[in-house]
Amino acid sequence: MKNLKIIILTFIIGFGMLSFTTRDNDKKGTEKHPISLSNKGYEVGDEATDFKLKNIDGKMVSLSDYKNAKGFIVIFTCNHCPYAKKYEDRIIELDKKYKDQGYPVIAINPNDPNVQPEDGYKQMIERAKQKGFTFPYLVDEGQKIYPQYGATKTPHVFILQKNNGKNIVKYIGAIDNNYDNPNDVSEYYAQDAVNSLIKGEPIKMTKTVAIGCTVKVKK
Prior knowledge:
- Strand 7 (about 155-165) and strand 8 form a beta hairpin.
- This protein is α/β, with parallel strands linked by helices.
- The chain is built from five helices and nine strands.
- Strands 5-4-3-7-8 form a five-stranded mixed beta sheet, covered by helices on one side. It has a two-stranded antiparallel sheet with strand order 1-2.
């Protein structure tokens, strides 16, 4: 009887250790494979990926096509968003002002046209013609580029600077601090950032909160 009690006690202890080990391994497994947070996109100082996206003229455009550029003002924008519409003239002005100084605007429409028909390719062509866009207006087919950059709004600005063949993120955020009225702007975030890069000076404000419509994602 004494031996039987010892066997039972040994079995209970062994089962408990096995259960503890299993739970511990599950916990370790969870720690080794956490939920990925890599889709948050770029931070200032990161190297931005190049892309090859279709422009409104049907041609494919990459950053590498701009051999003489010193950097880029990449803006994720669209047709339908009221915020984006408010900024269209200011985006054109940014391109006119900085393109010849080595920082052209590259506009990208990240929205899925099945979710928002106004942002279809045909509508992009019409909008660009109507407004007289002076810059490429590219379509992010398959919505592969905007998540890499971390764009969440339209418009959302990423200012890049060429550095040893790499495109380094120098500014992320809004164009300025008043989407509604350009005459009431007191902080020209994007413009100040590009001016600092051209002068070789540090950018005072490298990140701001983009204000606009959410990116329309394929369901």
